[in-house]
Write a structure and sequence with these properties.
The complex is a heterodimer of chains A (661) and B (158).
Chain A (H helix, E strand, L loop, with lengths): L1 H29 L2 H30 L6 H6 L6 H6 L5 H22 L5 H25 L23 H30 L4 H32 L10 H26 L3 H23 L6 H6 L1 H25 L14 H33 L3 E3 L1 H18 L2 H4 L7 H7 L1 H17 L7 H23 L6 H10 L2 H26 L1 E7 L4 E4 L2 E12 L4 E11 L2 E6 L2 E5 L4 E5 L1 E5 L2 E10 L5 E8 L4 H24 L3 H4 L1 H4 L5
Antiparallel strand pairs in A: 2-11, 3-4, 4-5, 5-6, 5-7, 7-8, 9-10, 10-11
Helix pairs in contact in A: 1-2, 1-6, 2-5, 2-6, 5-6, 5-7, 6-7, 6-12, 7-8, 7-9, 7-10, 8-9, 8-21, 9-10, 9-13, 10-12, 13-14, 17-18, 18-20, 20-21
Chain B lengths: L2 H29 L1 E5 L1 H7 L7 E7 L5 E2 L4 E7 L4 E7 L11 E8 L5 E7 L9 H9 L21
Parallel strand pairs in B: 1-2, 5-7
Antiparallel strand pairs in B: 2-4, 2-6, 3-4, 4-5, 6-7
The chains are: A alpha+beta (661), B alpha+beta (158).
Chain lengths: 661, 158
């Protein structure tokens, strides 16, 4: 009954989406407020129905209703409640339902909180949002229905792949989807603006918070996924340039560019056409990501060829939306006249530089991700494009961005003073130079580029702090004045600083981890030890234990440093009988910002066990950096909301009239 | 600067960045991509030792041998030919005899494939696509080996 209810709710949701996709559009064209109002009510109602469908599937999972095919294939009654719930999105059908749920959620948020939007713009935004909803709801109902029943209900389910039964993975997909589905809002705003044939600074002021919100979640989602891979896969890697990862990284790069260009548009009324294009590209890359992950084209060409309905359907959605958006862009972009002028060396110029390099870096990731697929489709030749490719293309393109980051906020709008900015960055440059010298001195014969990487990371971090020091005058003025100035700074300034510090920290972690890690790969028996850097890990004992749906072999290590016991680590190897699979439970011990990492291998007949031990310096910064970026985003957003709350000047007649004519 | 000069400067520097990106991509595509071969390809193509590549196939039943200090050897087969793979380290959780895997590394002068990376992907029902294709080519393909809607949010599990 519950499953049928969900199915029915989803169909009603589709019906409402169809209304939302057409009526408000017509209303906006005829300038009929009644028809335009339909947009908001249908967006809220559509959300209610899609949420009902999602809730119905969740209930089926919680109740372990194995008469529902999707639940049977992906759940098991022994599983802890939390993993029954996360099982909802641990599979194709359920994750598409989550996708649509989040899409409807964002539509509803615009309907609920977009009261200040000009009516016509709002109607069109909701209309475009509903076009996407229609496409994906049809996709679910026609090709990936999660509510299908099995005639004779099995007693037990087939269980979720155990590697997916993990708290990190429980929240990774929702975060990621909030991010890249959230970019649909920027896309809808861009399309709506193109249809209107008009765009002004007020538009950017509305788009920026939404992009920022999506970007925050995307940042957290990617970081979460990376940390999950790091501790589950058992070999210490945290980024693999895997197509599935790239699928989420490309929208992130474009969304980052979009955030910055929208800033220029909001403050200076320039870069309009480019901002619109970025908004289209960011969501297009989200769609391409969805295609890559959901069509089966990556997992197997045969799966794709055997059941091409899904792949072809998503491909059709891609072609219609991306193609349509770009055609509309080509037709309408010339109408959007460019605003504010600026010299190449200015805040705008720095942001353009940021945009150009981010987009180029994104382009190389795009080529590296899709080239093997294209080559195989065309010539049948199979290649793999791995980390070396991305390191040698993405890396060099990211260096100029990092160098430019501290300069940007120190340059004035319109016309900046590069020399002045450089002078103000003397302290940051000094810190970087000293660090480089120390790093070279400390590890002679070490990795050549690593000290420069560390220097660059500190330059970014110190550069971000410089802006705040400059603006509060904390070193020159009395403390009370500096404090008053600091509280007077807009939160978005603090947010931007925090995000840039986060970037610097992340780079620091990446360089530390990749260049100075130590690894030990051994086979040891109880009471033997392995030493790594200053630490000594002694295998004390091994034991077999059972959990709710698994058996595990656990080892206990005592960790000593300079002869003193500092703690114990317990890595394990789990077997899941219901799926005949094993997972590695790594043990992590934090030492400052670094970690000791132990993963267990095979137990041999002679009683020895394989262990892999790493010492990973500064590794935590890789994820704390993105967390700081997301916090910066949140801080900035709290500021924006206040300002979006008082958009009266923007709603005045002069702003509503075509701004450029 | 005039408006025109400003625009030209901007467009010029953007083009320079794009050119840099294109050059990097072309340069790297030449050097850092890795071709995939089946054990039969190794025999037929007379591949020189030391050339980096990927080899995929099924781990032959009973061929896995564990030596001292985490060294392992196993035979990788596509049904027609096989190659011995040597590796030091921990095998992925999903590594099993009779299962499809991909090894990355190079042939040594004795014809043994010295792997530094072994990939076995997510689901136990799932086979790396290169392996599936290679097996299919050499007609040892069984349809059920691939589950059509395998889902895992991440790819390679080394």
């Amino acid at each position: 009954m519950i499953a049928e209810l969900g199915h029915y709710a989803l169909m009603l949701g589709l019906g409402l989406a169809l209304v939302q996709a057409s009526v408000p559009m017509l209303g906006a064209r005829r300038n009929d407020p009644v028809l335009m109002d339909v947009g908001s009510s249908t967006a809220l109602a559509q959300f209610a129905f899609v949420a009902t469908a999602f809730a119905a599937l969740t209930v089926s999972y919680v109740r372990s209703d194995f008469s529902v095919l999707n639940v049977f294939e992906n759940s098991h009654s022994d599983r802890p409640l939390i993993y029954k719930i996360t099982g909802v999105w641990g599979n194709h059908e359920g994750s598409m339902l989550l996708w649509v749920f989040i899409l409807a959620l964002f539509g509803a948020l615009v309907a609920a909180f977009g009261r200040n939007l000009p009516e016509r713009l709002k109607a069109r935004v909701l209309g475009v949002q509903a076009w996407i909803a229609v496409a994906f709801e049809l996709f679910i109902l026609l090709t990936s229905n999660p509510f299908l029943r099995i005639p004779d209900a099995p007693v037990e389910g087939r269980d979720l792949n155990p590697i997916l039964q993990d708290p990190g993975l429980a929240i990774h997909p929702p975060l990621l989807y909030l991010g890249y589905v959230g970019l649909s809002i920027s896309f809808s705003f861009a399309i709506a603006a193109l249809i209107e044939g008009r765009i002004d600074a007020a538009w950017a002021r509305w788009v920026r918070p939404w992009t920022l919100l999506a970007w925050m979640f995307l940042t957290l989602g990617i970081a979460m996924g990376s940390y999950w891979a790091y501790y589950t896969l058992g070999w210490g890697g945290w980024w693999f340039w895997d197509p599935v990862e790239n699928a989420s990284f490309m929208p992130w790069l474009t969304a980052t560019a979009l955030l910055h260009s929208a800033l220029v548009m909001e403050k200076r009324d320039a870069l309009k056409v480019w901002t619109i294009l970025l908004a289209i590209l960011a969501f297009s890359l989200s769609l391409i990501g969805t295609f890559l992950v959901r069509s089966g084209v990556l997992t197997s060409v045969h799966a794709f060829a055997n059941d091409p309905r899904r792949g072809v359907f998503i491909l059709a959605i891609l072609v219609v939306f991306i193609g349509g958006a770009l055609v509309l862009f080509a037709l309408r972009a010339p109408v959007l006249k460019q605003g504010g002028l600026f010299a190449p060396i200015s805040r705008e110029g720095a942001l353009v530089l940021n945009n150009v390099f981010l987009v180029c870096a994104c382009g190389t990731v795009f080529v590296g991700t899709l080239y093997p697929l294209a080559l195989e489709a065309i010539t049948g030749e199979k290649i793999s494009v791995g980390a070396p490719f991305f390191n040698s293309t993405f890396g060099p393109l990211f260096v100029p961005i990092l160098i430019a980051v501290p300069f940007g906020p120190l340059l004035a709008w319109k016309r900046g003073d590069l020399l002045g900015a450089a002078q103000r960055l003397t302290a940051a440059t000094g810190i970087a130079a000293i660090t480089i010298a120390v790093a070279i001195a400390v590890s002679p014969g070490g990795p050549v580029l690593a000290p420069f990487g560390i220097g660059l990371a500190l330059f970014v971090t110190a550069g971000a702090l410089t802006e705040i020091v400059e603006r509060t005058g904390v070193l020159k003025l009395p403390l009370s004045t500096a404090f008053a100035r600091a509280t007077g700074l807009p939160r978005s300034t603090w947010g931007g600083m925090l995000a840039h510090i986060g970037l610097g920290l992340a780079v620091l972690g990446i360089i530390g981890e990749t260049q100075w890690s130590a690894e030990a790969l051994r086979e040891i028996k109880p009471r033997q030890f392995v030493s790594i850097r200053d630490y000594e890990l002694t295998l004390e004992s091994m034991a077999t234990r059972s959990g709710p749906n698994y058996r595990e072999l656990a080892a206990r290590f005592a960790v000593h440093r300079n002869g003193a016991l500092i703690g114990f680590m317990e890595p394990a190897k789990r077997e899941f009988p219901s799926r005949e699979t094993a997972t590695t439970q790594t043990a992590l011990m934090r030492r400052g910002l670094s970690q000791i990492y132990v993963s267990l291998g095979e137990l041999k007949p002679d009683g020895s066990v394989g262990v892999r031990i790493y010492y990973k310096p500064l590794v935590l910064l890789i994820w704390l950096g993105p967390v700081a970026m997301a916090l910066g985003g949140a801080l900035s957003l709290s500021d924006r909301r206040l300002r979006v709350g008082v958009p009266k000047p923007a709603r005045s007649k002069s702003a509503l009239a075509p701004a450029e004519y | 600067m005039t408006r025109r000069q400003r625009r030209l400067t901007l467009i010029g520097s953007a083009l320079a960045a794009v050119a840099l990106a294109v050059a990097l991509v072309l340069f790297s595509l030449k050097d850092s991509i890795v071709f995939f071969n089946s054990p039969t390809d190794l025999v037929e193509k007379h591949i020189a030792p030391g050339q980096r590549m990927r080899v995929g196939g099924l781990v032959e039943e009973g061929s896995l041998w564990r030596g001292e200090n985490l060294t392992v050897r196993f035979a990788l087969t596509d049904g027609s030919h096989e190659v011995t793979v040597s590796y030091r380290g921990q095998l992925p959780d999903l590594f099993r005899e009779g299962q499809g895997v991909v090894a990355e590394g190079a042939l040594d002068s004795y014809g043994t494939f010295q792997a530094d990376t072994i990939l076995a992907k997510h689901d136990e029902r799932y086979m790396p696509k290169e392996v599936a294709d290679a097996l299919k080519k050499h007609s040892h393909w069984q349809g059920e080996m691939v589950k059509t809607n395998t889902t895992a949010p991440r790819g390679a599990v080394q």
